[in-house]
Amino acid sequence: TQQSPAYEREKAPIVIMNSAGSLHIVLSVAGMMDGHCVKIVETVLRGTGVRSPIKGLVDVCASRTVDMGGGGVLVRIEQSADALEVGSECRRNLAMVGYGGEIVQMYLPAGTQ
User: Hey, which bits of the chain come out as E strands?
Assistant: First the structure.
């Protein structure tokens, strides 16, 4: 098995809590060229049925960056969800329809995970 570099184990997704107590993660998405792309990204993540195809995902809101071909997605997750797992599933689903996504993360001091 291949060992991950030490710095990979010291990163964690940034989880945001709003005033209502809802938890959110942020994804940076490449390839959103217009408003139609924003709708595609939201639909891929949210799904078309009652529940999202991604376990732990509650809702999403995407926004694109003007003239940069990218944007961000605010992903509301369940309280008990694993933020990294939800983010990884989001990345996988976006890649299946041609969008590059990255989970916004921060480095943690060694030994704090």
Answer: 11-13, 15-17, 23-30, 57-65, 70-77, 100-103, 105-107
pLDDT in tens, 46-87: 998 888 899 999 999 999 886 677 899 999 999 999 999 999
CA dihedral for 95, 99, 105, 107, sign (positive or negative): positive
Residue type, 18: N
Q: How confident is the model at residue 98 (pLDDT cuts 50, 70, 90)?
A: very high
Which of 3-7, 25-29, 61-65 is predicted most confidently? 25-29
Burial of 26 (0-12, 13-18, 19+ CB in 10 A): middle
Cβ distance 27 to 75 under 8 Å? yes
Residues 32 and 69 sit within 8 Å (Cβ to Cβ): yes
Residue whose C-alpha is closest to residue 79's, from 30, 39, 23: 23
| DSSP class of 34 | S
CB neighbour list of residue 24: distance below 8 Å, 6 or more residues apart: 15, 16, 17, 18, 74, 75, 76, 77
